[in-house]
Amino acid sequence: MNRHEVVSRVAVDRMIVTGHRIECPLDWDRPGESETISVFAREVVAAEKVDDRRLPMICWYQGGPGMEFGFPASRSAWLEQLLTRYRVLLLDQRGTGASTPLEARAMPRADPAELAAYLSHFRADSIVRDAECFRSVLLGDDAGWYLFGQSFGGFCSLTHLSFLPEHVIGVIITGGFAPVLHEADAVYAVLADRVAERNADFLARFPGDAARVRWLVDHLESAHDVDAYGQRLTAPAFLALGTCLGHLHGAAELHGIVERAADDLGALGMLGGSVHQQVAALMSPATNPIYSLLQEACYAQGGPTRWAAARVIAADPRYALDAEPAACFTGEMMFPWMFEEWAPLRPFRDAAEMLASRVSWPPLYDVDRLRGNRVPVVGAVYWNDPYVERGLALETAGLLGNCEVWITNQHEHQAYRVTPAPVAERLFAMLDQRRAQS
Predict the structure, then answer these.
(1) Using CA atoms, how far apart are residues 81 and 91, in angstroms rounded to an integer?
(2) 180: nearest Cα among 210, 158, 204
């Protein structure tokens, strides 16, 4: 059995939060030979239910990849929805948070090839085995539990159902029906269309921003515009702000940055420190090593990804820097230039190239097993989702056995976090009904 340690147990905001740490093999395919890493998770239960041992557990699969959960400082609205029904396991996925972290300043491997090999063990296929380890340790070998997958967490849930479904009672997926039949090139080709649609909506709402974006892109292409720390902002980096077009009020958020940047350029001849800081804040997930290095590997089912997003965008005239009336902002995509321009990623540049060229990725999904799935699955597909494309998501939901989806254009990708009550009410009712019918 994997070594288990109860790290902490505290009461906070009507919750009991218990920290657990287990030791897992880096390579689950060679558990007796591989080195081990530490994986951390917090078990959270409503204080009034702490003695109810009949309360089922649900494993929360976080978005990402490579995003830690962090300490649950309050019984927030979305967490509250889960605590009414479950004990909640908040997993710091391997390489994040209080699990053995991946940090550029303390890299576990100096050689790029060794580092790439090390990083290859941080995808969903390893994450779900870590989670199953927690289930066995905390609940017992034969106990069942639920899964909740938000965004990338939905990808993890489908991997879990592909390879370790035996102890899963039910699954909820929000904005995370992975395109299990497609590899990276096809995924990014469709996403490019969705992101272009969001760009068109943005300019229709703020038509004056077309000229501003054109002006800003020309400036960033021709000038050396640096912040107080010497970090240059380039046009492709500025256009990467399109990732926020999937946020609630994301178009207005982007407009605010564009308007301020244009004002600064007119008054100062450069972009002010506030704009540089806003760009850095919005781009901070992209400087997370796992997020950056393994985002395309989430779609790798065998062959190399070869920087699929970069190739798709380079071939699409809507994203050209000289496009009229303005270049499209890009979405949740990673590009090779990021590993040159952004200091936190530079130590990973060579490893990133090796991962993009890797030809031996193991499959993340068993499509036949998903088709024959009998575990009740319910989920939300967001019609205007620029992160997990609706057509591919619906294709996956359609092939998945015992699955029911709620298709909505009234909510965005982060709906369960932003407006959790209506989403939870709908999905919990769907799951209860489907379980009763199973």
Answers:
(1) 18
(2) 158
Place of tokens 């009507």: 14
Per-residue pLDDT of 331-359, as tens digits, reads 889 999 999 988 888 999 999 999 999 98
Q: Which residues in 185-238 belong to E strands, given as ranges?
A: none
Active-site residue, from 126, 151, 162, 292? 151
pLDDT interval class at 271 (50, 70, 90): very high
DSSP structural state of residue 226: B
Q: Which tokens in the block code for residue 254?
A: 């982007």
130 C-beta neighbours (distance < 10 Å), count: 22
For the chain, domain boundaries = 4-180+364-437, 184-357
pLDDT tens-digit readout, 56-81: 999 999 999 998 888 999 998 899 99
E-strand ranges in 336-417 read: 377-382, 403-408
- CB-CB contact of 427 with 406 (8 Å): yes
- Is residue 121 annotated as part of the catalytic site, yes or no? no
Cα separations (Å) of 170 from 40, 147, 404, 436? 23, 7, 12, 11
385 labelled catalytic: yes
CATH 3.40.50.1820 assigned to domain 4-180+364-437? The reply is yes
Catalytic annotation, pick one of 125, 130, 225, 385: 385
Contact by Cβ (8 Å): 423, 415 = yes
CA 58/CA 35 separation, integer angstroms: 29
pTM above 0.90?
yes
Does the annotation mark 151 as catalytic? yes
147's tokens = 């899964």
Of 222, 215, 128, the closest CA to residue 171 belongs to 128
Cα dist from 17 to 194, 281, 329, whole Å:
40, 29, 41
Encoded amino acid at 395, one letter? E
CA atoms of 159 and 149, how far apart (whole Å):
11
pLDDT digits (tens, 9 = 90+) for 25-58: 999 999 888 899 999 999 999 999 999 989 999 9
